[in-house]
Amino acid sequence: MTNPYVKQTIENEVGYIEFFHPAHNSLPGDILAKLANTITEAGQNEAIKVIVLKSGGDRTFCAGASFKELININDEATGKVFFSGFANVINAMRKCPKFIIGRVQGKTVGGGVGLASATDYCMATKFAAIKLSELNVGIGPFVVGPAVERKLGLSGMSQIAIDANSFYPAEWAKQKGLFTQVFESTEELDAAVKAFAENLCNYNTEAMKEMKQMFWKGTEDWDRLLAERAAISGRLVLSDFTKETLKRFK
Fold it and tell me: For residues 69 and 56, which has the higher predicted lDDT (pLDDT)?
């Protein structure tokens, strides 16, 4: 069993940030905090011009929040802190002055869809089906909703949020604007991500920084908004419905 990690490597001015958890890359609070900090630091590191966000393993990009932690939430304050984990990562990505390229090699669920949506340019394999499964356990995609809606539009986001049991294929996510390209294999994806990221390093970093601010215009209130959303999830996770549902996952 490999231990969970967040690691960063720099190659040809590209900062590769990789996260991993043996439970399908589901993310507990400590890994989310480390991920948010690593993204913030990479944004300030002058040796890095462009960031690539990726995950370890080959089957799943990110299975969302850690159910193990979810099951143990017994009060609203703890719930809010737990759900703030994804909020903090999304806000770190939003505020980072550098373009973040997403490299999505496999299935993505819940909070993972939020991470993919918060990248500035996202490339995937054909195995990268997406699902917003939150309603299944009695909560909703409140924290990741704004990021997902920003990429998929309200119509696309509400479709997958309501149809919480279905995986939507990578091709669908591409049509909706979440993925820019979909590749046949992880090898092809990695080659394309590397070439694309390294090419971006040739551009004016000031121009890219200004462009990033332009792209994220209108999200200035997300620190407050996502905290409010985390509180909603923190409340709902204590409902009898959710407690009963989560027992099945024990």
Answer: 56
How many whole angstroms separate alpha carbon 142 and alpha carbon 18?
A: 25
Residue 144 has pLDDT above 90, yes or no: yes
Q: What is the mean pLDDT of residues 155-167?
A: 98
- CA nearest neighbour of 24 among 70, 69, 59, 68: 59
Identify the residue with better confidence: 172 or 71.
Answer: 172
Q: Is the pLDDT of residue 121 over 80?
A: yes
User: What's residue 243's pLDDT?
Assistant: 86
pTM surpassing 0.90? yes
Residue closest to 132 by CA, chosen among 96, 160, 107, 158: 160
**Strand blocks (E) in the chain:** 5-11, 14-20, 50-55, 60-62, 100-104, 107-109, 121-125, 130-131, 181-183
Contacts of 196 by beta carbon, 8 Å cutoff, 6+ apart: 101, 121, 123
* Rounded Cα gap, residues 10 and 51, in angstroms: 9
In whole numbers, what is the pLDDT of the chain averaged over residues?
96
Helix (H) or strand (E) holding 40: helix 29-44
8: left (phi over 0), alpha (psi -120 to 50) or beta: beta
Strands 14-20 and 5-11: antiparallel
- Pairing state of beta strands 5-11 and 130-131? unpaired
Half-sphere exposure of 114 (CA within 13 A, CB side): 32
Q: What is the pLDDT of residue 67?
A: 85
Residue 132: closest CA among 150, 158, 154, 155? 158
- Say which residue the tokens 């996770």 belong to: 237
